[in-house]
Structures are given as C-alpha cells and as structure tokens.
Amino acid sequence: MSEDCCESTKAPPSCCDMRGLLSFSILWLLTKRDMYGQELANELAQRRGTRPNPGTLYPALAELEKRGNVETRREGRKKTYSLTEQGRESARVSCEYFCRAYGEIFQEYGSEQKANVVP
Predict the structure, then answer these.
(1) Cα dihedral angle (113, 92, 22, 59), rounded to 10 degrees?
(2) How far apart are CA 26 and CA 45, in angstroms?
(3) Does 60 map to a domain?
(4) What is the pLDDT at residue 72?
(5) Strand pairing of 70-75 and 78-83?
(6) Considering the domain boundaries, does residue 8 fall inside one?
(7) What residues of the chain score a pLDDT lower than 50?
(8) Domains in the chain, number
(9) Is 106 exposed, middle or buried (0-12, 13-18, 19+ CB in 10 A)?
(10) What pLDDT does 118 receive?
(11) Rounded distance between C-alpha atoms, residue 71 and residue 109, angstroms
(12) 55: domain CATH number?
C-alpha cells in the first residue's frame, strides 16, 4: 500500500483532488435527509477525510440552489437544505453518469482486492 494512502485519517491521497465531487456529494447526501450546513460538512468530512471549509461548501450550496436543485428553509439561525424534485432527478442522473464513467474502476478494484485476500 502506498504511504500516500492514509486509512487511519481517511484523508484522500495527495494524488487525488476530490474537490470536483463536492456538488455530486451534496446531492447524494441530501437524498438521505435534509441537513443544515454543519451537518453536511460533518458528513462530507466523515466520507472524504477532509472537511470542506465554509468558503467552499456554501458557494456550492448556493449554486445548487440557483440551479433549482436545492431549496432552503430557516430554522432559527440555521438554514436547512433539502432537494427539490429537480434536485432528486439531478441526483439520479448524476449517479447514473458517475456509475457509467467510473463503475468499471470500482468493479476491477473490488475483483483485485478479492484476489489478493489470503484465506
């Protein structure tokens, strides 16, 4: 295993720039439940190993809202984000694209991992 891969921290290896997946990740997370910004940041940090800073997360949410994929509602001082019907469709289409573009990589990787397991 490359020392660049940090399983203990879940941080992405330095060779992988995960920033391009932020909007896709937000859409995917919001298919599970409505969330406020800090919850989204926590979920992203848990999955990606790095927490998006507010200067990255909130502009992405604003862009998703501008495109009609996300809507917000105020709950006290918090803004809760949820998917619109268009957002649900965008998440579905994005997942199909992602699987078509990258599915083979995951299938091959999974096969290689099974082959490397010593009973």
Answers:
(1) 180
(2) 12
(3) yes
(4) 97
(5) antiparallel
(6) no
(7) 1-7
(8) 1
(9) exposed
(10) 56
(11) 37
(12) 1.10.10.10
